[in-house]
Amino acid sequence: MKKKVVILQPVPSHYRKSTFMHILENELFDTFLIAGESYLNIKIFKTEKSVILPFLKISISRHSFYYLKRSIRTLKKINPEIIVAGGIDFHLLHTMLAFFIFKLLKGKQFFWWSHATLGNQGYLGKKSRLFFYKKSDGIMVYNQKGKENLLSIGIPGHKIKVIGNAVNEEDYGYLNHKLEKNYIPDIPFNMVFIGRITSYRRLDILFKALAIIKQKSDLDFSATIIGDGYLDENKELVNQLNLSDHVCFKGAQYGKHAAEFLRKADLLVYPKAIGLSILHSFSFGVPAITTDNMKIQMPEIELLKPGYNGDFYKDENVDDLADKILKWASALKVNKSKYQENCINSIKEYGYLPDVMAKKFVRFLEQKKK
Which one of 54, 107, 128, 251 has the fewest beta carbons within 10 angstroms of its own beta carbon? Predict the structure, then answer.
């Protein structure tokens, strides 16, 4: 009889549906997913092997805590031998409670699936996090940096597995679309930003860099901004910088609509931490420029190799960003197909694909099962 595995997540994120489905359909374990029906406005998916439950929100002072109703009862009913929970988050009360009940009291195997960032939680927070990591049966992390973080705080290497990250299969450009391999000289050099627009994204840095490019070069360019959020203040800045003829706001776009913009893009520019957008961009063969501030970068940044498939610019330095954009505009005009291949090869090299990620996940559990 197959051992039962329960994946305990805040939400079944739609952008990871392909990965979850590969895991849920694996042949080695009988796998289930328990998650919340709504959390931080993240779009979700449902499947026959998922149990979607409501959250109870508890506000104490300036902090919000969440408890997934009936999650403990559901875990007891399924009675899994193995539980895999999302990263250690003390705001998710049910996850902490599940660890104490099923790992410490019942002796079930308990794994974390984590970014493995060390955070800024002070002495007590770090010690608490270390306790949960050390008492677990293993930790799956997104990238090599996450593994290094855990090694640095004394977690043995045999308990850590790097499994990468992925988006849905239909979102990979090279798997679903015919990509233009050559640079088209008669149209403007097209930059793109794709993601939710917040003050943290610092699109003002991009716009100021574009103003410099307009002033000091003869590059014919356009910038397409895809995403919703803080639009009014960004549009106002674009007008102030006389960039209205160069910058176009397209709002939120998904699926095939987002794909059309990425197919036409030459370069992704992300002034701050980039996340999964770099994977989406690379899958269309589009190089990326982002900040060199590695303290804020997300795990997917390991895909970027300066000069090979993109570049870093000096954090918040608009002149350096302008120079990097001009550098890549020149390089792509000469050999776009080379850099397109580099982007796609990086995805394959690191295994940032749903089926590959799922196989690493399942094999690690198979190796560690008792």
Answer: 107
